[in-house]
Amino acid sequence: MLGSFDAVLLARLQFAFTVSFHFLFPAFTIGLASYLAVLNGLWLYTKKQHYLDLFRYWIKIFALAFAMGVVSGIVMSYQFGTNWSVFADRAGPVIGAPMAYEVLSAFFLEAGFLGIMLFGRDRVGSTLHMVACLAVAFGTFFSAFWILSVNSWMQTPAGFSIDPETNQFMPEDFWQIVFNPSFPYRLAHTVTAAYLTTAFIVGGVGAWHLLRYKRRGDKPSQATKTMFSMAMWMATIVAPVQIFLGDAHGLNTMEHQPQKVMAMEGHFESHPEGWAPLYLFGIPNEETQTLDYAVGIPGLSSLILGHSFDAPIMGLDSIPDDEQPPVAIVFWSFRIMVALGFAMLGVGMWSLWARYRKRLYEAPWLHRAAVLMTPSGLVAVLAGWVTTEVGRQPYTVYGLLRTSDSAAPLEAAAVGATLVAFIVIYTAVFGAGTYYILRLMGHPPHTAEARYKDVVDGPTRTAGITPATEELMRRHTKEEE
After folding, report:
1. Which of 78, 195, 228, 301 has the smallest set of CB atoms within 10 Å of its CB?
2. Which string of b and e fits 208-234 if b means at least 16 CB within 10 Å?
3. Are residues 456 and 442 in the same domain?
4. How high is the mean pLDDT of the chain?
């Protein structure tokens, strides 16, 4: 049955599934690592217990999400050598070095200091422990730096030449490769999205517990209130910044990948005299090259993209059919991302109004909205990723190497079988991990939140509880008594 499918399409679906699954975890842990560093710094500066409680609460969740992110990301590197071996051979001389730097500098930085961050507070002292927290936070950002540099080079290739004999992309200027034309915009937009993703997850968890406290008639803990307050401050400040960065990124994309923006905007027809409408909704019809049932605002697209109502906007009718990306997917994924971005801005402004009225913790409808928006960052980053990657089609290296020419000569049945295996294994393994994370989020942060050391005083053993650890636990219990 799988043999009847196209092998390239199955390879694309396989990579899309694994990268989408993986991307959820870094999108959360990049912001969470920085949040933990801030909490630890506030605890050291103020010695207020609720900051330490929040650090201990979220560090357990961070450890699980970080581990799942690492494991889910390993698979993708193997796919370069299996499903996409032609791409790896052609582009390897250029992208190999940045990807190696990601492992050697960024990932090793995270992994090297993670153990100190998790277990070292009482062993290495507060100063070195704080350094470890900052190192892990910087490592997550640095990892994103290199990965996004590689992806941006594939979108806007620079600093290379093509070997006429092997057709390989050969590096000529390393810094042009790293800082290619779209990289600064993509880095700022993606990292800011990660911070917003974390803010709304933290804020949603805080709002959930505020609602539960109110339902029980209890007074919320200081840690719960601080968690919600810090998240809403982040949403209030960063959401408008993210919208501005998204606009700048869109203008950069218009310059270097115009057909992607045409698909995002649903512009099948050119508007050489300006007054191009901003389509809010519609049904892209790629057969007739029209946007059916379109609802738009006249002239607004020209104003946004060209900063003038008279700015000419070219459409997909100026692009050959075989150069056009899949319009419907790009059109709708872009609208999901933008709609969620403005919804985040709305929640941030709502929380600012509630804070001004001194009702931030007594605003149940705001709390319900925050709970509803908990996964919004994850959905938005996936929608943005789909917009970026599908909008680049039909190319792997934009304008130079087509996706159909990048795939390995594999049979569809082999690719399809591994795709099914990935779906089953990922759903089972990472579904269980996600369920456990939700269980941890389900209880509020307590005063004097428990540490791992408070449960087992000693290294974790894969064999479980051993006689030695049982003796240590009994000794620890007697000391407490």
Report:
1. 78
2. bbbbbbeeeeeebbbbbbbbbbbbbbb
3. no
4. 87
